Pentatricopeptide repeat-containing protein At4g21065-like (Ziziphus jujuba), 633 residues
Amino acid sequence: MLKLRKQNFPIAGHEKLRLYLAYTVAALADTKTPQFQEHNFVPTNNHIQELQESQILPFRDPKVCVSSLLGSRSVFQIRQIHSQLVVNGMLQNLIVANKLLYVYAHHKAMDDAYAMFHRMRGRNAVTWSVMVGGFAKVGDYATSFGIFRELIRCGVTPDNYTLPFVIRACRDMTDLVTGKLIHAVVLKHGLHSDHFVCAALVDMYAKCKLIEDARQLFDNMSSRDLVSWTVMIGAYAECRNAYESLVLFDRMTEEGVVADKVAVVSVVYACAKLGAMHKARLVHDYICRNKFSLDVILGTAMIDMYAKCGSICSARDIFDRMKEKNVISWSAMIGAYGYHGHGSEALEIFRVMLRSGILPNSITFISLLYACSHAGLIEEGLRFFSLMWDEYSIRPDVKHYTCMVDLLGRAGRLDEALRLVESMKIVKDEGLWGALLGACRIHGNVDLAEMAANSLLQLQPQNPGHYVLLSNIFAKAGRWKDVARIRDLMSQRKLKKIPGWTWCEVDNKIFQFSAGDRSHPRSEEIYGMLESLYKKLELAGYVPDTNFVLHEADEEVKVGMLYAHSEKLAIAFGLLATSNETPIRITKNLRVCGDCHTFSKFVSALTERVIIVRDANRFHHFKKGACSCGDYW
DNA sequence: GGGAAGTAAC
């Protein structure tokens, strides 16, 4: 390698030499150096040191200054250059001064940047945007907003660089009030057509859960770039409308926008949310075709996708093929085994993880305890619960306690579960009470259920799901007056039962069903299939379980209500539209209804089909009249 | 001379 010496330097002239050296510094920092490449020179860290020692950089040429700043490796180095720039009066040059601010911000040295910013007499749009963006990036939103306000006070017009930073700060704080104010500023300055500004606004509204507002802005964008698509796709997946995410992904592809890795991760995430197996395979193909490497982020997202689409084998295959795995990847795999009810595999992979030298974190233990509770591994669960603090100094939080309540409650050890809840010294949340209430439902403990439900309704009076669960428990015990009381409470509080949806994927198309739905083009056939199924099932001994109907009504009416639940419609459609060998895969947005669970068991026996149901909680594999959940869910 | 979106449990 060429050693950097004046005598063998390829360009003549002293000034050029300085420039060349500056470019060398910049190249070491991987910045763009076309001139540098011309000379086919590969610099090393020694060169930069030599450069500093030789004090050859006089910092009088703005270009040299800028390149040197870009080449800085540490805040210390920037400060050294800073002092030279002051001595040489180079900070009078706004380009140089702004670059100095920028590199300070880039190294997160915002104190240095701020001190300098206050001494600067001349400021321009770049100065302001570097400061606003710099503070936003390090999470100091208060200062970022403060500088933005100062900008407005100084009569400066905010531009398409500054505004996205401020909008993103609103997003990170989910500060919708300020966000809307900034939106007004955007409109005032006519910047709503800038795609950076617009993408930031879409993201802000989406993260603040105003998905409709986000969508409206997105639809009105004159040109939608990849980032806006990615934001919108991710937003729909996040707000439980993964179906729309995948519709958008198809539209994006049709419009000729090519996904990058970030976009693909969002799509993978949406597939996971929806549990859409065919779509998952197609996305996997897309990933292979476009040669995305299976890095730790994409790989982990794919493990979760395949697991949540019902294929634990494919999830394991991805896991095994990943070259680099971190604690997140291992936790995802443990979690995957967990919600498929494969407890011993989850425990085994945890042991392998420990042997590989990866330390578990808090979430690893949640996955592990969850796996234990869903596989009935009670003693193991109890052991891990004490191990996490004793051995790994991870303090159990409310989620770990929730798993333990679930574990004990599911096993019928409700007293122990209650004692654990009472002994907790941390704040109890709705998930914890929900787990206790769920256990009461399985074991028909109405008194404890009432107590759990009271705490639950105090914490979350607006969640209709809790009322429905309690009402189901009362109904099962035949306490119809209490059922009516709950129903009245719900209507007083203007709460409606969350509509149940079931998705079934056939021929790469996702079909969505709601109860009593007749919108499907093959609706006639579906209802015909349902009717013939009912006739056969009745002979096989199936009795509709009307305990799962919330309202007090005549038995006949109740049976009618159960008749066309979305799960049943989806299963009937699956039977019609798929071949005998393929499993019927359906996904439900809520917990599967008890009657539909029984119905699925009977159908799996009668038709000799495998039915894989993913509900809000876990997977149910129905085969030959039995379910993998062992009827506890 | 200054910009973006993504991974695990419930």
Observations:
- Residues 1-16, 28-40 of chain A have pLDDT under 50 and may be disordered.
